[in-house]
Amino acid sequence: MPISRKFWTWTVATAIIAVLVVFVGPSIIGPESMVGSKNVLTTAKMIPLPVDGPESLDWDPRGEGPYVGVTDGRILKWRGSDLGWVEFAYSSPHRGNCSSHKVEPACGRPLGLSFEKKTGDLYFCDGYFGVMKVGPKGGLAEKVVDEVEGQKIMFANQMDIDEEEDVFYFNDSSDTYHFGDVFFAFLCGEKTGRAIRYDKKSKEAKVIMDRLHFPNGLAISKDGSFVLSCEVPTQLVHRYWAKGPKAGTRDVFAKLPGYADNIRRTEKGDFWVALHSKRTPFSRFSLMHPWIGKFFMKTLNMDLLVFLFEGGKPHAVAVKLCGKTGKVLEVLEDSEGKNMKFISEVQERDGKLWFGSVFLPSVWVLEHQ
After folding, report:
1. Nearest C-alpha neighbor of 217 from the set 147, 183, 169, 267
2. Ordered domains of the chain (ranges, CATH)
3. Chief subcellular site (predicted)?
4. What number of other Cβ atoms are within 10 A of residue 350's Cβ?
5. Which stretches of 45-174 are assigned E, i.e. beta strand?
6. Where are the alpha helices (DSSP H) in the chain?
7. By three-state DSSP, how is residue 241 classified?
């Protein structure tokens, strides 16, 4: 029986695709290069943790720390190389099934951390419970706010405190999905994220920006005049004017060269943004339309999805933005992921940059003047 022309066509096409994947695959799916970036994150010092996912970092008013929120629902404190990491606080009293590597909803998931300098209280966003608070002595955290305008807060992400006004701001990344569904919230195309203002005196929560597509990082300007919220899939940093002649309005502050996680203000008033990854062909395609993202979520396992989204090459990127104009001032990378990858936050402190990771059991420190 003769072999059909269709069979030969299919065989040749398959062979060509296989050759392309083997020999030029990385150049097809790999992340975009960045002009002017410095590949210096390879030299950062790594500090290991006994638990995965130090997503965010902060220091208490005495300068001790950093403190980090990790996968098993706890806040850990760094006591230096001699004492290492010690437990400081935790989100939930239900500690029986908490895992060092897998998030359990009953245990909570601490994300963005912010110390209030005048009281020593630590506020943090929990990806399941809302915004939490724990006193200077640590222990079990208490809930501060878990709803806004009659609607449940599903995915509190990052926050920042305006101590002069006695308010804080935070992102609710989705009104449907918790932290455990982070990739679905990212790829589904639903613009249900919100930036929220909470008045600690009146205990009133108010939405200041809505219809955001997975807002992640949030920070307040040095003078408190505006609030920034990083909308991840669009790579936009939105600005809400809290004070001054533009109060109550919003605009776009910056366009990022990749997909943001947390954003942190420096002492001088600029901002560091941690990028989960740069743009890749797969990420651009999967975000073209919601049905494409949903299709990949249903057909690909999570490891493969992350691999493709990272361009087959997990890496680390930190971007510094001018606090006045939003202009990119500096880009630091570990472009091959040799030392750092999956970073979630960058904090500038005493001539050093500190980095957290949403997945890995590590923080990193880089001398940076």
Report:
1. 169
2. 40-367 (2.120.10.30)
3. other
4. 8
5. 45-48, 57-58, 67-69, 74-78, 85-90, 110-115, 122-126, 130-134, 139-140, 142-145, 147-148, 151-152, 156-162, 167-172
6. 5-29, 182-187, 281-286, 290-299, 302-309
7. strand
CB atoms under 10 Å from CB of 105, counted, come to 15
CA-wise closest residue to 266 among 325, 219, 229, 217: 219
* pTM of the predicted protein model: 0.91
Distance CA 131, CA 144 (A): 6
Tokens of 182: 């982070």
**Predicted local confidence at residue 7, as pLDDT:** 47
**For the chain, which ranges sit under pLDDT 50?**
1-2, 6-7, 9-10, 12-24
Closest CA to 92 of 55, 128, 137: 128
Specify the length of the chain in residues: 369
* pLDDT for 13: 40
Task: Tell me how far CA of residue 100 lies from CA of 49, 54, 337, in angstroms.
Answer: 10, 11, 23
**Edge-to-edge strand ranges of the sheet holding 328-334:** 258-265, 271-278, 316-321, 328-334
